[in-house]
């Protein structure tokens, strides 16, 4: 996970939701770096999720505590159970906590 994602979750500004194999090494990396250069604390998963694993409590907490969620849709985004779980939790938090979602 990126620097801002491990010990500073409670001070997150942005949670980036994306399909790593589609966008993780290009667009998302550039976006993360641009946000980081401006001092915007951003959660970005740098680990590869093992197939069949469910979304972790750390991710759920990061989604809940981030002020904004940025969802980057790609061709295979909807085929990822992990991405769909993230999106469902983001929408739930938006409704319950009145968080802002940027698509």
UniProtKB/TrEMBL annotation:
PROSITE patterns, A to Z: TIR
UniProt keyword annotations, A-Z: NAD
Pfam families to which the protein is assigned, alphabetical: TIR (PF01582)
Residue intervals of the TIR domain: 10-103
Domain of life: Eukaryota
Cross-referenced InterPro entries: TIR_dom, Toll_tir_struct_dom_sf
A single GO BP: signal transduction
Protein name: TIR domain-containing protein
Organism, scientific name: Solanum commersonii (Commerson's wild potato)
